[in-house]
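Collaborator request, handled under Task 6.
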Amino acid sequence: MSLINKDMVINTVTHKYPQTLKVFAQFKVDSCCGGACSIETTATSDGVDVDKLVEELNKVAAETA
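Structure tokens returned to the collaborator:
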């Protein structure tokens, strides 16, 4: 079961799993100004593979969950 999905709002994810900030940075996804939108919306506008991003976010979140 995934902790994070593409429909979640970035600010919610980074608040609950602060360690995910480094993943957003690695993928060059705007977690600041784009933080009020869903992962899918912001990642798509930043030209990022949403599924790959969510996979990496879940790996990091699971390490400390």
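The cover message to the collaborator said: "Residues 10-64 form one domain. The helical segments are 10-16, 21-26, 39-45, 50-64. Please let us know whether this matches your experimental observations."
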